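A student in our group prepared the protein record below, which I am reviewing. Here is the record exactly as it was handed to me.
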Amino acid sequence: MSDVFDVYTIIFLALAVFIFLRLRSVLGQRTGRERPPYDPYAARERTRPPGNDKVVALPNRTPETTARPVEEAKSGDRWKGIAAPDSPVAKGLDAITADDKTFDPKHFLGGARAAYEMIVTAYAEGDRRTLKNLLARDVFDGFESVIKEREARGETVETRFVSIDATDIIGAEVRGKTAQLTVRFVSQLVSVTRDKSGAAIDGNADRVTDVTDVWTFARDVSSRDPNWKLVATEAGQ
């Protein structure tokens, strides 16, 4: 019995470590308008869901808050495949790199892609623990508000990713000590919302829907915490 106990103890410890490392790895490596928490399961024309007023809007860009340029010379193809030379995004990436020498936009995009799928899936399942690790507090409050209302009505959501076709950085800047990266996700989803009787009230379990989302992630570059968190969401065009 002692040997069996030891084997199961090792298995459970290994699983716990794997789950912990998985959550930390999503947007957590130091290499890196606005509508409420976007509900990818609702019809595209649906109006603003209730309880979402706390989502943090991406502030309007002004001359005083644009990304800070880096003084040293940069090669024209430094951000090849990520941003065009001398574009606002390229200058924003330069500014972020000036404050964080280990920032890697390609690594960030890999993490953002994984986080996008995890967040959308966790939101459908009402998985608050996963959401709390990946969302800023105000955004989490908005997501949780919608989840509570859905649960109170006895509704459930089924969602499945068919593909994520594009993940592109469309905005980059530093505001004070906070780096912000805005990403456009283009994906295909199958989703359906059911009432407490199991009847479909929104979406279609047999139809693939094209979805475009624009999400903004941020982190304090002066902090030892390497994690990026979602701070704003909107439906893209």
